[in-house]
């Protein structure tokens, strides 16, 4: 059976067995993705799929890949990255250390984009990037820092030469000096605690998949996690209504500042 009640039982088992809580996500979207995976293998009910997930790590990896959003590229929306660089540059000039959080970092392009920005600003080694995602498999890929050319569409040739090593099969690897700035960690935005006193948070095109109550709670937690005047960098379709009530002021599209 693929009815909603059966799916909720499946979601509860996934929470217990795989430490992934789907309750804050949009139910229809989650169910649709799971159902598509099941039809691919001709599973007749959620219990059968759960048994396969229990004993087959490759199917677990596929499940996380499909259920979470792992699509990204370096310096997505380049003009907005210039604005991000502007917002953090003063803090970096006046301080010796700080943390920028890439929340929902997927395969790492965003986190390494932040690290490259820190290098360009000549930030001290005390400035780090915390890169988190729900999917442990994609984090392992991110740690290697190896990407195909398509991911570097917004990286010009001089930047490629400066921060990447070209590998023999045409892929590019982020240099070790950049990778050292990034700390990868599994994290569930809906249930795990947040770090505090962050210089900036990037959470782009992730919150749109959450239910409204989960979104509002997440924005409140982001606000509390930022240091005064810290920057929240969101995706183009994401807006915080009543942002001042939670201590954030809109400064321009994509960006909010902690009051």
The rough form would be described as: globular
The CATH homologous superfamily name of the largest domain equals: Vaccinia Virus protein VP39
CATH architecture of the largest domain: 3-Layer(aba) Sandwich
Over the alpha carbons, how many angstroms does the gyration radius reach? 19 Å
Q: Domains counted in the coordinates: how many?
A: 2
Average predicted confidence as pLDDT: 90
**CATH fold assignment of the largest domain:** Rossmann fold
What are the segments in which pLDDT stays under 50 over at least 5 consecutive residues? none
Helical segment count = 10
Helical content (DSSP H or I, runs of 4+):
40-55%
Beta-strand proportion: 15-25%
Question: What does the model show?
Answer:
- The chain is of the alpha/beta class.
- The longest helix has 17 residues, at 78-94.
- The mean pLDDT is 90.
- The chain folds into two domains: 4-67, no CATH class; 78-258, 3-Layer(aba) Sandwich (Rossmann fold), CATH 3.40.50.150.
- It has helices spanning 4-18, 27-40, 46-55, 57-67, 78-94, 109-120, 136-144, 157-163, 176-179, 212-225, and strands spanning 97-103, 126-133, 146-147, 164-166, 172-174, 182-186, 198-203, 226-234, 248-252, 255-258.
- The strands form two sheets. It has a seven-stranded mixed sheet with strand order 6-2-1-7-8-10-9. Strands 3-5-4 form a three-stranded antiparallel sheet.
């Amino acid at each position: 059976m693929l009815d909603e009640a059966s799916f909720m039982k499946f979601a509860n088992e996934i929470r217990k067995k795989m430490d992934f809580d789907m309750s804050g996500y949009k139910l229809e979207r989650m169910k649709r993705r799971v159902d598509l995976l099941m039809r691919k293998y001709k599973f007749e009910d959620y219990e059968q799929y759960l048994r396969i997930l229990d004993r087959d790590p490759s199917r677990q990896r596929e499940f996380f890949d499909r259920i979470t959003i792992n699509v990204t590229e370096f310096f997505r929306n380049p003009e907005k990255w210039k604005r991000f660089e502007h917002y953090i540059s003063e803090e970096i000039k006046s301080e010796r250390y700080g943390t920028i959080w890439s929340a929902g970092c997927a395969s790492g392009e965003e986190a390494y984009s932040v690290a490259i920005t820190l290098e360009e600003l000549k930030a001290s080694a005390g400035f780090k990037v915390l890169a988190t995602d729900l999917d442990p498999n994609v984090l392992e890929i991110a740690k290697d820092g190896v990407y195909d050319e398509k991911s570097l569409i917004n990286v010009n040739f001089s930047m490629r030469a400066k921060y990447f090593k070209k590998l023999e099969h045409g892929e590019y690897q982020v240099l070790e000096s950049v990778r050292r700035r990034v700390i990868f960690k599994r994290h569930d935005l809906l249930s795990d605690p947040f770090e505090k006193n962050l210089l900036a948070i990037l959470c782009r095109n992730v919150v749109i998949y959450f239910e409204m109550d989960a979104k509002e709670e997440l924005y409140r937690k982001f606000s509390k996690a930022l240091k005064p005047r810290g920057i929240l960098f969101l995706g183009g379709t994401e807006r915080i209504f009543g942002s001042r009530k939670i201590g954030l002021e809109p400064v321009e599209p994509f960006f909010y500042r902690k009051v």
